[in-house]
């Protein structure tokens, strides 16, 4: 999990890695796509609407992931302008953002983004006649917001009041304070944009910590919690305010979020429940257990807290080793994962469902020695099986027996927008294919040549919050 640090605490090496990654992203053309998206969408809902914070959060996270493909050690730093307020701050140093325009309002002459380096030409501009050098007019248009102004914005509730004050009385003024390129629709041309916005993003996280009972986001009539955000609206799972309101769930945190990550706790399969708690907002608890033989295992939390559990492995706790996640399959709002695991070492990550939540829980891992009432069977060429996604995030698993090598068609029916995943043979975790809408209407369909074996079909609603009935059948041709 990447940690975003205050830029004033970066080492010389961290600064140079960040700058180098930005310059490479500029050189390969990806950086300018960000500039273009911000310019083209400037007046299309990303400012002065409820999307201001969610949209810029997604925007920053994508840039950060692009930087990490160049250098995985890089995380976006933030610039806290209530502390580093002077033009003499190291933020504007020659090894980082570079200095003011010369004369003020003119081209930046120092640092890695000076035009003379040959590496920072503004190809995306508000209008074609605008100049191609990065410009700044630091301090000529406004005074930086004070700590008190930030604290006042952070005190506002509900979200709708907070975001309006943060955007207009804090964020806008910082853009104006930098001036030049940072004051245009193409403002990401100034890399300081991303450190400015990283601090704005951090203030949204701080606000959630300060107001744990407030909804982290509110729609404004034009946009709501499920509004897909442009320009990513055609992706399979487009970002929405709801999907970005918990930054920790997006895979990063701030150095101001939590103190020290706790060490990994070893669990024994079949041992009594381990008692623990989420003591701080944003805390992750990590566990490790060894699966001695391939079998079905049940991982379960108990207690009063709304726990979110993620299972990783075997042999790795990285995001790419994620086996599955669960929110509420256990008792109350507890989590339960039942999974067929090969022998090996597995990792469990526990967090509270809410970014600001805390509370007690217990955790156990058991091997299911009794045959489980496992997935229901779909008879190949038999009758359609009727099922239902009764609750948000639910998924149903079925199995079918492919008795011979042939082409198999797995298809859903009904009015529910189903999403289908096919795994196997003889392994619930061996991914083969997935599909959203290849069937009739918004139904799913997978057509594959399969070798003999047991195959597993997982059905969920396309929308994480969607529910509804469906039919499922498998035909061999
Ligand atoms: Zn913006
Ligand atoms: Zn901005």
Low-pLDDT segments: none
In the sheet with the most strands, the strands line up as 5-7-12-9-10
- What is the CATH level 1 assignment of the largest domain? Mainly Alpha
Fraction of residues in H or I helices: 10-25%
Q: Overall mean pLDDT score? A: 93
- Quickly count the domains: 3
Name the CATH architecture of the largest domain.
Answer: Orthogonal Bundle
Bound molecules: zinc ion
> What would you give as the CATH superfamily of the largest domain?
Di-copper center containing domain from catechol oxidase
Order of helices and strands: EHHHEEHHHHEEEEEEEEEEEEEEEEEEE
Model description:
This protein has seven helices and 22 strands. The longest helix is centred in the middle third of the chain and has 20 residues, at 159-178. It has a five-stranded mixed β-sheet, with no helix packed on it. The protein has a five-stranded mixed β-sheet with strand order 14-16-21-18-19, with no helix packed on it. A four-stranded antiparallel β-sheet has the order 6-13-8-11, with no helix packed on it. Helix content is 21%, strand content 26%. The chain has 477 residues and is α+β, with helices and mostly antiparallel strands. α3 packs across α6, α4 (147-155) runs antiparallel to α5 (159-178) and α5 runs antiparallel to α6 (192-210). The chain has helices at residues 12-27, 30-41, 52-70, 147-155, 159-178, 192-210, 241-244; strands spanning 2-4, 101-102, 107-108, 252-254, 265-266, 274-278, 285-291, 295-302, 307-312, 322-326, 336-341, 344-352, 359-367, 376-377, 385-389, 395-402, 406-413, 418-423, 431-435, 445-450, 453-461, 468-476. The chain folds into three domains: 2-210, Di-copper center containing domain from catechol oxidase (di-copper center containing domain from catechol oxidase, Orthogonal Bundle); 265-367, Jelly Rolls (Sandwich), CATH 2.60.120.380; 376-476, Jelly Rolls, CATH 2.60.120. Bound molecules: zinc ion (2 copies). One zinc ion binds next to α5.
